[in-house]
Design a protein that fits this description.
Blueprint (H helix, E strand, L loop, with lengths): L1 H15 L9 H10 L2 H8 L9 H4 L9 E2 L23 H12 L7 H26 L23 H18 L13 H21 L9 H18 L15 H4 L8 E5 L11 H6 L8 E2 L1 H4 L21 H4 L17 E4 L2 E4 L33 E5 H15 L4 H14 L15 H7 L6 H13 L6 H7 L10 E6 L16 E4 L11 E4 L3 E2 L2 E2 L2 E3 L5 E5 L18 H6 L10
Parallel strand pairs: 8-9
Antiparallel strand pairs: 1-3, 2-6, 4-5, 7-13, 10-11, 12-13
Amino acid sequence: MRRFFFVLTALAVVLNGCKKLDQVPQDTATKEAVFGSEKGLELYANSFYKLLPSASDAHKKDEMSDYAARSQAPDFLVDGAYGPRQSNGWDWDGLRNINYFLENNNNNKVSAAVRLQYNALARFFRAYFYYTKVRRFGDVPWINKTFKVDDPDLYKARDKRSLVMDSVLADLNYACTNISRINDNSRSLITKYVALGFKSRVCLYEGTYRKYHDEAGLTGSSEQWLRESADAAQKVMTEGGFALNTSGGDLAYRNLFISTAPVATEVMLAAVTDANLSVYNDANWWWTSATYGARISFTRMFINTYLNIDGTPFTNRSGYQTLVFKDEVKGRDKRLQQTIRMGDYKRINGGALEAAPPIFSYTYTGYQPIKYVLDDTKYDGGGQNINSIPLMRYAEILLNYAEAKAELGSFTDADWTKTIGALRQRAGITGGLSNKPVTADPYLQTVYFPGISDASLLEIRRERGIELSLEGLRFDDIVRWKKGDLMTKVWNGFYVPALNVPMDLNEDGKPDVCFYQVMPANPVAGVNYINVAPTINGGPNPQRLSNDTSGELTWLSTTKRIFEQKNYLYPIPESDRLFNPKLGQNPGW
């Protein structure tokens, strides 16, 4: 961010310096100033980074996902609440900026080698731009030139997904071949290995989308994309010099998300904060406030996927369905205690360390995330966080490689050991690290993926959900796997054995929460009382127990969420179709 601030300031000085009465017209002077020197190219190219999410945006990316219970059902999943009038995202300003650069980066005052580097960066960002558009809308117009106001192509129809994605792959291959920067200590710049990592993400998405979406008519080309994904990931694994972070002991995983500077061992690209430039994010505010944000809580269905510490499925435990919170979180994958409030989790309040069990002014299910939350409460109000937010991690590359190989049918025990086994070893899991599984987990099959019988692929999908939780990839995973039905599952929470019995969630000897239908006459001081009566304030109570007087917490069970075939793509916004009727509309919208 510091570099970006300074180069924009310098660019303004360069352009302002051209404003003299005896100079050639401003647009010509600007071209010469920018494209006539390496510094000018650098200043221009830094504007491409605006396409990347900010730190405040990045930690919210899984706001709509199957494992996230939230304050309200997303309009996108509510019948009649979302359509072309509400749709957005059909914006092209960033693309014009890139194409203008590529058209004009031809000044011989700058060496061909330098121009090549910046063209490679521009084409990386064009691929990034188009990948976001295709994920959202499917077919989109492929534009590789700067439009004039009277260009007839402004009114062209959308191009086929195959043409656009082939062009994206060509841009990515160009970037991976020609970006010479191989390392960036700040973790804020695009390097060759970031480009390769992104290629592995894009190709995995496209390969699996084509495999599972027959309606796209591209199933026969899925293997090509999966091979491209595996090859790109393998290059990062063998040449990139990254490794899973293991410093910090039991906090090695969480430290990736709460560190001020990106953990360079594993983080490949990050949205970096800088207190000196007043560049912060609002993670604490968003993840702890009772009023700000979506108040995301994990569902029990997802928490059940965290393995026991010995590597066996938690759902193999006898009676797991009725274990209370304090017991169900024990002896599990250590990422669980680094992802939600549980056990002896504490926060700093005015300098004092205090127990911090789940707070029901925030959570609806009892599983309250802490992944991006700094432990000092002084950060809770407003955008004051100083932690940098990862945008790409080496862990994702391992998962991309594993999944692509499994989908290709070439996943080996050696592959398992260096990918899933390595991730689980970092998480403290002791069993099943060296050999891929041979028996499919019935819970994953029944609840999540009935159509998948490959035991390795099931475990890779389990691992991807856990390792990358809340990192903005989950909805994309659901879309490419064609598992939209997961978005309609009940938002369930922890098990409550009885009404009017205070529960000690962190075993510190102090009761924390009590569920009632009739408020007790003598409530216990310090206990948060939650009304789970059938009705509240004259209407249905959004928070209930599954068996009325006991059972799993449920949230918004009376609000019907719908995921139809049309929901795999967003509608083209109505205003844009009025401007260009040739765009047509996505099916069902």
